[in-house]
């Protein structure tokens, strides 16, 4: 099952009246449950795989993962960008729900800092979703004007991540 299928399943499950579902497909098993505080589950501490050694708790289900920036964000447009707040800038938004990471490991430099110029195809951040590290790549040559999310924060679909300027 690929990520698009999984996210479609989650969306349909969320809209349904079901409270729990478990699907087995060959070697994969997906379990979904509504109304459970994820922090109360055994072993509900999550860590960035690999070098991130210090675990950090995820937010409780049903609570907003991103503060007011995500609530006030305009709907994402093509390529995950929206108009920026400054003249001539655009906002790169989260294409999926997950945990935002600025670097591949805690002791590695960030993919991008404010003022960094990136070429199309360069990795700008990682969003971890369901223990899969999804590299978000620049769709065009850009300069990072402002980073809008803290490293390790949970982000929702469409949440603003970076304010950028095309170069």
Automatic annotation (TrEMBL):
Pathway named in the protein's UniProt entry: Lipid metabolism; fatty acid biosynthesis
Key words, A-Z: Biotin, Fatty acid biosynthesis, Fatty acid metabolism, Lipid biosynthesis, Lipid metabolism
Any single biological process term in GO: fatty acid biosynthetic process
Region of interest called Disordered, as start-end residue ranges on this chain: 52-87
InterPro entries, A to Z: AcCoA_biotinCC (IPR001249), Biotin_BS (IPR001882), Biotin_Carboxyl_Carrier/Decarb (IPR050709), Biotin_lipoyl (IPR000089), Single_hybrid_motif (IPR011053)
Lipid biosynthesis found in the keyword field: yes
Domain Lipoyl-binding intervals: 89-165
GO CC terms: acetyl-CoA carboxylase complex
GO molecular function term, any single one: acetyl-CoA carboxylase activity
Metal-binding keyword on record: no
Entry-linked Pfam families: Biotin_lipoyl
Annotated function: This protein is a component of the acetyl coenzyme A carboxylase complex; first, biotin carboxylase catalyzes the carboxylation of the carrier protein and then the transcarboxylase transfers the carboxyl group to form malonyl-CoA.
Protein known as: Biotin carboxyl carrier protein of acetyl-CoA carboxylase
Organism, scientific name: Spirochaeta lutea
Lineage start: Bacteria, Pseudomonadati, Spirochaetota, Spirochaetia, Spirochaetales
């Amino acid at each position: 099952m690929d990520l698009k299928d999984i996210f479609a399943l989650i969306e349909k499950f969320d809209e349904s009246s079901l409270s729990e579902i478990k699907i087995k497909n060959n070697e994969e098993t997906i379990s979904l449950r509504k109304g459970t505080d994820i922090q109360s589950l055994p072993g509900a501490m999550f860590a960035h795989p690999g070098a991130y050694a210090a675990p950090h708790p995820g937010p409780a289900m049903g609570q907003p993962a991103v503060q007011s920036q995500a609530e006030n964000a305009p709907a994402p447009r093509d390529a995950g960008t929206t108009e920026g707040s400054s003249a001539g800038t655009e906002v790169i938004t989260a294409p999926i729900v997950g945990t935002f990471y600025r670097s591949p490991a805690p002791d590695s430099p960030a993919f991008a800092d404010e003022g960094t110029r990136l070429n199309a195809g360069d990795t700008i951040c990682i969003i971890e979703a369901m223990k899969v590290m999804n590299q978000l790549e620049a769709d065009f040559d850009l300069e990072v004007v402002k980073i809008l999310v803290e490293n390790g924060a949970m982000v929702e679909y469409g949440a603003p991540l970076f304010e950028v300027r095309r170069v």
